[in-house]
Structure formats: structure tokens, C-alpha cells
């Protein structure tokens, strides 16, 4: 018998050091906005507003806390010494790019936090998490230990949840998390098809991008599928199209998004796309589900407009039956500002297909750092028992939204230039804020400064 389950979204809370250091080569928005002055307070409030709006629509919406930044531990590993203030000042003086990496708030992109397989798909009937090693970028490769600690605190019950440490940070095992993973299914509580997209096969010759690096490897995706105990018959691996990577599609979720039995993608998303779609269709059909594919051609929306608008980095959410079923698409304001993209979206909703409703959000502060609505959230399918076993303090409701909004307003700066990262007071501000946040959410001592006290 199929158990009832729902898909919960856990959004990353933008951290107090949100800045535009341009650290992510291959991410066009990150590069184009390098050195701008950021507004961490506005970025966090915009993200919270999206969480609250989706909770108000009836979706299970959680929040994941940011990481401790600046990472003094990273700077000490790289040879800086003295007290924390001295370490920060010396890094600013002699290696400002390293200080930028140590201050990155990129953990807000929780689509990169981990890959998640629901209990309906796994051999042991538990929800499996593998934290992403993110080894292609220094500023992200330092996240996974704290990410694992956060996920274990949010999903603590070992009878329901299995947590795997990140894969070794070797080039052949580059893993970018759920940004390259999609689950397709009938009902959420039914066994589904897990769709892994990789940029390169590190052990074989294959088409490769020429301009930007391919971050996810086939070997990492295969290892995660094995760790999670997935049946080979319910897994599909696909290579991301090299031309898309070279256009700035650094993760699959910038060019494709799926939910339930719907896959929404660009025509240049995958190598040998017809064969990939056929494989997905066949595996879903074996589960009694018909795949619906909404494929956008280059003539409808170019790769340039795809990257510039983050059209596919949208949240594809199932609507309740009383709302008429189908899907709603949560898109960033940038989609409305690109005429070709907005024209396409209006025609999409009017077409009578599976995507029947649009919701537009202003996430400009985080968008400028290279991620849209889908980058900000980690999807976790949960049964009712698993939801009850999830830490109660992270669910967004009226009271939690109000407390987090107040917390952000009191602790975050409304202006942060790159020169401000050299201010040792910023570290004290962040630690004070995060110490209060862990108490507010009831998550215990998550951060190095708390654990080493």
C-alpha cells in the first residue's frame, strides 16, 4: 500500500556575510556582479518572504541556518596565525581573494547542500542524505562538515533518517548535491525514478565543455545511488549538454526542473535528450505513471535568456486537487523582465498543459550572486511519521517567520562592500547572531565557535 507523503522544501537562510566577491567561475550572474555592494538584510528578508508565502499556500516549508562566516578555520589552515582579528586583517592585507572565500554566504544555496532519496525509493526504507562535497570551489568545499551537522540536527531520528558524510573531495568525485538530481514519481509516497545529471565522466572520453568547467561527475552520482540503496531499474543517469555548461548552466537546475510526473526543461539540457526522455518515460511507465515533458526550444527561449532569467531555476510545485491540480511555477522577477521569457511563460500557462499557474518573487539580492528560487531550497519527501520526526523548530509558520524576521532585522547589515570583510567586528556580529539563531531554532551547538568554546 502506498503511504501518504509530501514534498517539503527547506530553504537556506541567507547569511550575514552575503557579498558579491565573484567567486564562482562558470556562474555568469556571480561574475557579472562581482565587487558590487550587497545588502545582506534585504537578501535574507526576501528569502524569508518566499518561505512564508509558500507556507501560506499550504506547502510544508522549513528553514536551514547559514554557516559561520568568516571561516577563520579556513584561513588558519592556509597559514594565517594569531588571534582571530589578526588572522582576518592579515588575510585582507595579503590575500583578499582568500578572505572573500572565507566570508562566502553561498551555503544559502541549499540545493547544493545534499542529495536526498526518500524512504519509498531506498532499500532500507529510510530517508537518505549525502552531503555534497562541492570540491570544485574553495569557498564551497568548506561547507560539508557543518552541513552534515545541520542535517543531522534537523533530521535526527536514526530509525527514519540515514546520513552519509560527503564523498572524498577528489576531482573524480565532484558532487554538487540536489542541484543535479531530480525525482520523478506518481504520488510522493510511491516508489519513484531518481534522475542524476552529471557534467563529465571522469574515467572516460566524452563530449566536454570548452569554456566553463563541468562540476558534477558521473562517478559521484553513481556512488550516491549505491549509498542510498537505489534499485538500478529506478535510476537514470544523463550527461548535461556541454554547450549549456559553456553558456553558464553550471548546474542542471539552471536548465531543467522536475516534480511528480512533470519534467520542464530546455531542448539543450542533456546529451542525447530524446533517449534520456525515453528512458525516463519507460521507467515511470513501469510504475504506472505517464511522464509529461514540457520542452522549451531554443527559438522560444534562447540559452542566453535561460541563464539570464533563471527560468528553469524555478520551483515546480504540485497544486492541491481543490485548486484544480497540475503544477504552479515559482519564478524570479527576472523572468518578467525578459520579454521572450515572459511571453513564453504566459503562453505556457494558457496552453492547458500541466503548468497552470505562475508565482513571481523578487529575490534580486540573492539572484545577483547566481541562484534563483530553486537554488535556495532542498527538497525532502516525507511521510507523516517522518515529518513528525523532523526537528519542530525549523518549520515556517506565523510565529517562526516573525521571530526570524526580527532576528535578521536586528543582526544584519544593510550594506556590505568587499572592504568591509576585513572588519573583525563582522566576525563578532556573525557569531553573536548565529548563537542566538541556534537557540531560537532549538538546534544546539552547530558551529565551530560554539563547539570549541
Give a verbal description of the structure:
The structure is a single chain. The chain is α/β, with parallel strands linked by helices and 453 residues long. The chain has a single domain (5-69, 104-450), classed as 5-stranded Propeller (L-arginine/glycine Amidinotransferase, Chain A). It is built from 18 helices and 15 strands. It has helices spanning 28-32, 40-56, 72-77, 84-94, 96-102, 138-141, 144-154, 218-227, 242-246, 273-286, 303-309, 333-337, 339-350, 364-367, 384-389, 398-411, 424-441, 448-451; strands at residues 5-12, 61-64, 114-117, 127-131, 161-164, 181-184, 193-198, 235-239, 256-259, 262-266, 292-296, 315-318, 327-332, 355-361, 377-383. A three-stranded mixed beta sheet has the order 2-1-15, with helices on both faces. Strand 9 and strand 10 form a beta hairpin. The mean pLDDT is 94.
| Estimated radius of gyration | 21 Å
- Helicity level: 25-40%
How many E strands?
A: 15
Task: Tell me the fraction of residues in β-strands, as a range.
Answer: 15-25%
Largest sheet: 3 strands, mixed
Uncertain ranges: none
Mind telling me the CATH superfamily name?
Succinylarginine dihydrolase
Q: For the terminal residues, how far apart are their CA atoms?
A: 50 Å
**Helix count from the secondary structure assignment:** 18
**CATH T-level topology:** L-arginine/glycine Amidinotransferase, Chain A
CATH architecture level-2 label? 5-stranded Propeller
* Shape label: globular
Mean pLDDT across all amino acids: 94
Oligomer: single chain
Q: Strand order across the biggest sheet?
A: 2-1-15
Structural class: alpha/beta
* Highest CATH level, the class: Alpha Beta
How many structural domains are formed by the residues? Answer: 1
